[in-house]
Design a protein that fits this description.
Largest sheet: 2 strands, antiparallel
Number of strands: 8
Helix content: 55-70%
Radius of gyration: 44 Å
Structural class: mainly alpha
Oligomer: single chain
Length: 1235
């Protein structure tokens, strides 16, 4: 058999090429066990495998000898083999392997390869080496002839020649030979201790080449992924001893520093790929590293100090980036924390260094300013720094330790290491003790840090570094709550500003210290739990009003600093930067409802407004040219420009912080009372994150007036027209775009919602559009924006429906399309009033499946009866009820009657008793019975029972001083005077709708008589209330000529008393003395003489500033998800609740629940108005979250009824809220008469 190119010298050359090419793959295998596996998969891993001459010749010979036999076998089975015939392939392969041609080829090839390998081994140095090997007898071939191994005495020979007793040349050659040997082979040999000793000598050798060769051996160990890498770390056990510092000019120090640098680079890079390896690899790397870094040497005074591995690591990676990277991902963090339990000295020594530094706080003046940039990663030139003192090394150690501990405390398993028992310490070190020590570094860094330092030294300022670590800890709310939110820690942190308040004897803190403290406090205040810790302390008692909490100290310091009232003996006054930083912390607190309640007593809105006006005057004076300005020198000019810039920045800071009072409903009132609302709104409306605040402002009449002056409303309209006309991209289109099928294009939806958000309250809309007339035209163009509200919307829609009719046999039918369906929905909504079960609202969508539209369309009033269900039964438009078991129903009815009769007798007997309790005793008993009755059979509290409760409660509660807040004003108007009172078209429309609703409820019967009676009542009430109003000195349209809206509460009372004018009037007149009247009866306090002048003239009703504020306050605590959903949607809870309450929940609740709302707020307390709104939002939580996602929250809350909500079913939840919040809410609502 001819074996061309596979025998003789040609085969030797081909094998030589293959062996040389395979060497990198063999070395990468890492262990002997892996070499065979690597060679088996060489074809998969080597892209050049098929280019090797040996492989090419072998493939040619196989094809030549075995190819015909393979083709013959395939032909026997049909001429082809599919991918699915693995069994057939195996059978053919077995036949080929057992054939004679294959056996002859294999035998011949093995013999030729054996001879070639023997030839290569015999001439190894000539074939592969460079003349540096000791001889061919050191290697022997394996039985397979594919691998080469060292003789046992080879490493012994190399180790002996590395010894310092040999000459330099011999040692170099031996080290070169050692670097060709796999590290694993060295570590597992019997001479490993000798090798390590001589390698350590090489690292400290004066000959640079020997030192580099020794370093190369260490580098190979560090760069290897072998689990034996840790064994090379034992070289650290003989680190050099230093007395005063680290001299980089010493060869052994330089080589070790290079080795640690390589190790650090490996630590930073290995996180990118260790997920690819087995967990065993990660464990070995972690164990090896921690084993090395856990070695710490301690000595007595006067003895040589021994550098530990951490000193080198701290010098190279001062901020412990390697540890932070390893703690970043869960994969490595879990293993690292588990390994640290076995290497606790690493953690203990870090804690010890932190405590020792905090106790001494002595650092060299230069603060290691050149650590990072002087220890080069590429060279150690003469121009670079070459010496670090012992103090500098210890300081680097401290920085490294702080960063390690800071990251460790961020995680639950990391905090399990505490408390830590330290050697030579009688007490365990808790997290709180450690944090106090760290905070001391920030607030009192020592006298050396008060000196002027270079900019590079500031990078390693201990206060700055520790502050960064503490701020990083604050980024995790859970970790910061456990570690930082402690009274002792906060008290220590506040000590610099307490100095100004207490005038302590020690040195006043400098500006940097105050700013570091402010940064940490700001991070704490950025989270909900942190903010509450600052307000209430560690106990988090929301009702505590102690002035020792952090928020009070910060507010007092800020107020005195703004007013320049800090004691002179306390030192130099804080700069604007410091004051601004602490004012920002106050802002983080007062822009929340509960925070404003805490800081309200400091009247920061007045202080900031006053300071802002002073800054504005200073800025105006600075910008005003004065004689002699042109003669000033360039230096003076630059100083003036810088000073003007500082003044402008200070003025802008104050205005921005003042505007943030508008984040809450009560804050808007405070801002309006400062007189700075208009100025604050300028240039701030479009700032990122201010959308929610703008919506809050736009809820009020003065807020809308301020927005209108800034041009904000015009900008919104312009943006909307732009997207309507041009689309998202105003570019030429060569192909038509897809026509949107949604009711509104997504690009327009956002801009429309923005307009609706700011125009969702009646006071705002009235302020914007009132008293402006449209030009008289037959038709208006699309760009002619109406400036007044049109009351003929219904007529226009009915006319459009008429025009959309089509003849069908003997009558006309309205064509069903999207426009006619939408018009139909608007007409029904605007005509009918009723709760979820009192009216049927037609669908706004057409079924795509072809199902006919089931709701009747109409083109004239009255609307079809299908939309007005019979309240005595079930409407045909409602889903039917299934069959009922009559006997069971009869039994249940008997049980109900026997139970309800007892309750009814108990409640009616109480109300009908001739001799009953007086004052508070009557009210308490009424509350008990009403609660019992509502929670058991709430649907029975109706009709005469409600009338009696209303009539008697007014008489009884008027004798209770806490309830009777306003004086009883006698009505002095004559009948003619009452009839002369003019009502606006809007109010007349309200009367018509109320009567229509009353007839539907069967509360009134005759339309004409009821209309006349209600009209007289509305006029009488308006006359009566205008006697108690004063003309405010205000330019607001909303505040002129009395209350401009419809009195929905008076209409509600009128229907409760079944259209009896006298009873309704008697109740309203008596009710006007109670504090509850100011919140249930909206016109009651409009421009009222009973309110403080500033509140009365503000145009902001207490319903918004008090009820709305308290609703948002409770939501932030009880329903944070709902509160966040409102904020993300740019819509406010106070907005929608004001809307609901103003119209007395008409269209949102059924009539019975509206009555229950009135008597609940009257009997249980007016604060139940807040609890009812919170209960409703809790009931709607799921719908609120889903509509927030689709950006339809405003539309949902404004247009949809509140389905399945019953006052009686939620009374228990309201009582729970009362127990928690009445101490805050009720006094806030009833103290509105106080200045």
């Amino acid at each position: 058999m001819a074996m061309k190119n596979l025998e003789g010298e040609e085969l030797v050359q081909n094998l030589r090429q293959l062996v040389i090419s395979c060497e990198p793959h063999i070395r990468e295998a890492g262990s002997i066990e892996n070499v065979e596996e690597t060679l088996h998969h060489l074809e998969e891993n080597d892209d050049k495998f098929h280019r090797y001459e040996f492989v090419r010749q072998l493939k040619r010979k196989i094809e030549e000898i075995l190819g015909p036999q393979i083709d013959e076998e395939i032909e026997k089975h049909g001429g082809h083999i599919d991918n699915g015939h693995e069994t057939l392939v195996s059978k053919i392969t077995d036949r080929i392997i057992k054939s004679k041609p294959y056996n002859d080829l294999s035998k011949k090839l093995k013999g030729n390869v054996q001879e070639a390998v023997t030839e290569l081994v015999r001439n190894f140095d000539a074939e592969f080496g460079t003349g540096k090997h000791t001889g061919i007898d050191t290697f022997i071939p394996t039985t397979a002839g594919s691998l080469m191994f060292m003789k046992p005495d080879y490493l012994q020979q190399v180790a002996d020649k590395i010894s310092k007793s040999n000459n330099v040349s011999t040692r170099r050659d031996a080290l070169q030979n050692l670097n060709t040997v796999r590290v694993d082979d060295v570590v597992t040999s019997d001479v490993v201790h000798v090798v390590k000793k001589h390698v350590l000598d090489a690292l400290s050798d004066t000959d640079e080449q020997i030192m580099n060769l020794g370093l190369k051996f260490v580098t190979r160990a560090f760069s290897s992924t072998s689990p034996h890498t840790k064994d090379i770390y034992t070289l650290k056990s003989s680190l050099p001893k230093v007395k005063n510092g680290m001299d980089l000019s010493r060869p052994e120090i330089k080589s070790l520093l290079k080795a640690f640098r390589l190790m650090n680079e490996f630590q930073l890079e290995t996180t990118n790929y260790w997920i690819r390896y087995p967990e065993h690899y990660l464990e070995e790397v972690l164990r090896s590293t921690l084993s090395l870094l856990s070695i710490h040497h301690t000595g007595t005074a006067g003895m040589f100090q021994v550098l530990s591995p951490i000193h080198f690591m701290a010098l190279l990676d001062t901020r412990a980036q390697w540890f932070i990277k390893w703690m970043h991902g869960h994969f490595s963090r879990s293993f690292l924390l588990e390994q640290l339990t076995d290497y606790k000295p690493f953690v203990e020594d870090a804690v010890r260094h932190c405590l020792e530094f905090s106790a001494a706080r002595k650092v060299p003046f230069d603060l290691m300013s050149e650590i990072s940039d002087k220890v080069s990663k590429t060279s150690y030139a003469e121009s670079r720094r070459s010496y670090y003192t012992g103090a500098e090394l210890e300081y680097a150690y401290f920085i490294h330790s702080v960063c390690v501990i800071g990251k460790l405390l961020c995680f639950k398993n990391g905090r399990k290491f505490f408390p830590i028992k330290l050697k030579d310490s009688t007490e365990d070190v808790s997290i709180k003790k450690l944090m106090v020590a760290m905070v001391l570094v920030v607030v009192d860094p020592g006298p050396v840090f008060h000196q002027q330092r270079s900019s590079s030294a500031e990078i390693y300022d201990p206060a700055r570094l520790v502050a960064d670590v503490l701020k990083g800890l604050c980024s995790s709310e859970q970790a910061s709550e456990i570690c930082l939110f402690k009274d002792e820690i906060t008290s220590t942190l506040l000590s610099p500003i307490s100095h100004y308040l207490d005038v302590a004897e020690h040195q006043a803190p400098d500006e940097k210290t105050l700013l570091h403290v402010a940064d940490i406090l700001s991070m704490i205040a950025s989270s909900t739990k942190g903010r509450r810790h600052l307000m209430y302390g560690e106990k988090k008692d929301i009702f505590s009003r102690t002035k020792s909490s952090a928020a009070h100290i910060i507010a007092e310091f800020t107020k005195k600093a703004l007013l320049r009232e800090l004691p002179r003996e306390a030192g130099q006054a804080p700069t604007h930067a410091v004051i601004g930083a602490y004012l920002y912390i106050c802002r983080q607190i007062y822009n929340t409802c509960e925070g404003l309640l805490v800081l309200y007593q400091y009247e920061l809105h007045k202080v900031v407004a006053e300071t802002w006006r002073d800054a504005s005057r200073d800025l105006e004076a600075a910008n005003t040219p004065t004689p002699g300005d042109d003669d000033s020198s360039s230096d003076n000019s630059s100083i003036t420009i810088r000073e003007n810039y500082d003044v402008a920045a200070w003025e802008d800071t104050l205005r921005d912080n003042l505007l943030n009072f508008a984040s809450t409903a009560k804050g808007i009132l405070l801002l309006q009372q400062t007189g700075a609302l208009n100025e604050c709104m300028v240039s701030k409306c479009e700032k990122f994150g201010y959308g929610y605040m703008v919506t809050q402002v736009a809820t009020t009449a003065p807020g809308m007036a301020a927005l209108q002056k800034t041009g904000y409303m015009k900008a919104l309209i312009t943006e909307l027209w732009a997207v309507l006309e041009c689309g998202p991209n105003d570019i030429t289109l060569f192909t038509p775009t897809h026509w949107p099928v949604d009711p509104i294009d997504k690009t327009v939806h956002k801009h429309l919602i923005r307009i609706l958000n700011v125009l969702s309250s009646f006071p705002a809309v009235y302020e914007l559009l009132a008293d402006t007339r449209l030009p008289t035209k037959q038709a208006y163009g699309f760009r002619e924006i109406p400036d007044t509200m049109a009351y003929q919307i219904q007529e226009k829609l009915l006319a459009a429906q008429t025009d959309n009719q089509a003849a069908n046999k003997n009558h006309k039918e309205i064509i069903v399309d999207m426009l006619s369906v939408e018009r139909n929905n608007i007409l029904v909504r605007s005509y009918l009033i009723g709760g979820p079960s009192e009216r049927v609202l037609p669908n706004r969508h057409i079924d795509d499946s072809g199902t006919p539209y089931s709701f009747p369309l109409f083109s004239s009033f009255p609307i079809p009866r299908e939309y007005s269900p019979n309240l005595g039964g079930r409407s045909a438009m409602k889903q039917g009820v299934g069959s009922t078991n009559v006997p069971c129903l009869f039994i249940n009815l008997l049980i109900f009657l026997s139970f309800s009769v007892h309750l009814d007798n108990e409640l009616t007997e109480f109300l009908d008793a001739r001799k009953s309790e007086k004052g508070r005793a009557w009210l308490d008993k009424c509350q008990t019975l009403l609660t019992k009755f509502l929670t058991s059979r709430g649907d029975q509290v109706k009709g005469a029972v409600i009338q009696k409760i209303l009539e008697q409660s007014v008489n009884k509660m008027s004798t209770i001083p806490e309830e009777s807040v306003f004086p009883l004003m006698q009505f002095g108007g004559s009948d003619s005077a009452v009839k002369a009172v003019s009502l606006s078209p809007l109010q007349m429309l309200g009367i018509k709708m109320a009567i229509r609703y009353g007839i539907h409820l069967k509360a009134v019967h005759t339309s004409s008589d009821a209309t006349d009676s209600l009209t007289y009542l509305i006029r009488q009430v308006k006359y009566y209330l205008e006697q108690q109003q004063k003309t405010p000195d205000s330019q607001l349209k909303y505040m002129k000529n009395g209350y401009r809206g419809f009195d929905w509460f008076a209409a509600t009372v009128f229907l409760i008393f079944n259209g009896n004018h006298d009873k309704a009037w008697d109740f309203l007149q008596g009710f006007s003395t109670l504090g509850a009247s100011g919140y249930l009866w909206i016109p009651r306090l409009h421009a009222s003489v009973h309110l403080p002048s500033a509140l009365s003239a503000s145009g902001i009703h207490p319903l918004f500033s008090s009820t709305g504020h308290n609703i948002e306050f409770i939501l932030q605590i009880e329903l944070p998800l709902v509160s966040s959903a409102f904020k993300m949607s740019g819509f406010t809870p106070a907005q929608i609740c004001q809307h609901w309450i103003t119209q007395c929940f008409w269209n949102y609740l059924d009539w019975l629940d509206i009555c229950h709302y009135v008597i609940t707020c009257l009997i249980h307390g007016v604060d139940y108005q807040v609890y009812i709104c919170v209960a409703i939002l809790r009931h709607l939580q799921r719908d609120i979250m889903s509509n927030m996602q689709t950006q339809n929250l405003l539309l949902f809350l404004k247009e949809e009824p509140i389905n399945n909500f019953k006052i009686s079913q939620n009374l228990k939840y309201m009582q729970d809220l009362e127990k928690k919040y009445r101490k805050i809410v009720l006094p806030d609502m009833l103290n509105i008469t106080r200045p």
